[in-house]
Amino acid sequence: MKQTLGELMRMNRICRMVFATCLGSFILVIFYFQSMFQPVMRRNPFMVDGCCRKGSRNALQELYNPTQPELSGAAVLHQARRDQVLDVCRVNSASSRKRRVLTLGDLRHLVVDEDHELIYCYVPKVACTNWKRVMMVLTGRGKYSDPMEIPSNEAHVPSNLKTLNQYSIPEINHRLKNYLKFLFVREPFERLVSAYRNKFTLKYNSSFHKRFGTRIVRRYRKNATQDALLNGADVKFKEFAEYLVDPATQRDRPLNEHWQTVHQLCHPCHIHYDMVGKYETLEEDANYVLRLVGVGDSLRFPTFAKSTRTTDAMTAQFFSNISTEQQIQLYQLYKLDFLMFNYSLPSYLRLD
């Protein structure tokens, strides 16, 4: 009898846990079905939102209803960028929303700043190290003052910044509705070549050589040497491209974040981003965000070393070493990023 009673109590606890999990998932489903249509209702930039603390203005209000004259012109530009994303999401709804709902795992790239009511979706190879440094300054409450004093490896320690997937479902919904959400993007093929150069041509990235390089050499190089099979330190761009477009790569697991598409990292057809910054106008757009937050006088976005960045000419050189078929396949892989963020078809592509 005691055993039966104990089993009933355990079953009761399990049922309550299952119910709570299902309820949370249901709420998340409801939110994302609603959020699909939220961007259709275009915000009026001259209407004050009711989202903010009484007697104060947050970055979201300053974006849509600027009180600083110098911010008004930029507001028009960023409305155009939002419209571009929305239009592409509408036209390509089938491919841009392969899954109708998001999971908590899909929110791990969204960094939250509670003090300034910001959400930043970080995209590797689009100044994300410096943006994480800036977010550490913003969320540090005086612990940091200069972003460049923060070592790059410390900026990537997960515990130094809080991400949206760490919140409860109601807390997630509240922040997605009321915080200013932004991301930064880059010409897709420049970003891809930048990732290749950083992860496969530099000796210190031995972890990427072992994890991805050995797999790529094993699959796509005929008569590979034992050293190449063991260390994977000399992956050619042609082999990297073959790996990316191989259907088996997509079936195995999601692409690594450094070469995953932006629309798969940040889900702009599910989450309505208030601002889309661009790598090509990085300092201007980044400092615009900081002015919206109200810290533009005390905090500037770090400058970057232009001499080492991957350029369009450099990207064209790498693409000249792959076949027309691979170029077409890579464009199809990154097509939505080109369209959403209004990047032109590169002149060096051979698509016919």
Please give a quick description of this structure.
This is Carbohydrate sulfotransferase. This protein is mainly α. The chain has helices at 2-37, 59-64, 69-91, 93-96, 128-139, 152-155, 169-178, 188-200, 206-220, 226-231, 237-245, 247-252, 262-266, 282-293, 312-319, 324-340; strands spanning 110-113, 118-121, 162-163, 180-185, 275-278.
Summarize the topology.
Elements: H1 2-37, H2 59-64, H3 69-91, H4 93-96, E1 110-113, E2 118-121, H5 128-139, H6 152-155, E3 162-163, H7 169-178, E4 180-185, H8 188-200, H9 206-220, H10 226-231, H11 237-245, H12 247-252, H13 262-266, E5 275-278, H14 282-293, H15 312-319, H16 324-340
Parallel strand pairs: 2-4, 4-5
Antiparallel strand pairs: 1-2, 1-3
How does this structure look, described?
A five-stranded mixed sheet has the order 3-1-2-4-5, with helices on both faces. A hairpin with a 4-residue loop joins strand 1 and strand 2. Helix content is 53%, strand content 6%. The longest helix has 36 residues, at 2-37. By secondary structure, the protein is mainly α. It comes from Salarias fasciatus (Jewelled blenny). InterPro entries: Carb_sulfotrans_8-10, Sulfotransferase. It is found in: Golgi apparatus membrane.
Give the helix tally.
Answer: 16
Characterize the quaternary organization of these chains: single chain
Work out the strand percent: 5-15%
State the helicity in percent bands: 40-55%
Overall 3D geometry? globular
The averaged pLDDT comes out at 85
Tell me the Rg in angstroms: 23 Å
Pairing-aware structural class of the strands and helices?
mainly alpha
Order of strands across the biggest sheet? Answer: 3-1-2-4-5
Largest sheet: 5 strands, mixed
Distance between the termini: 77 Å
The total of beta strands comes to 5
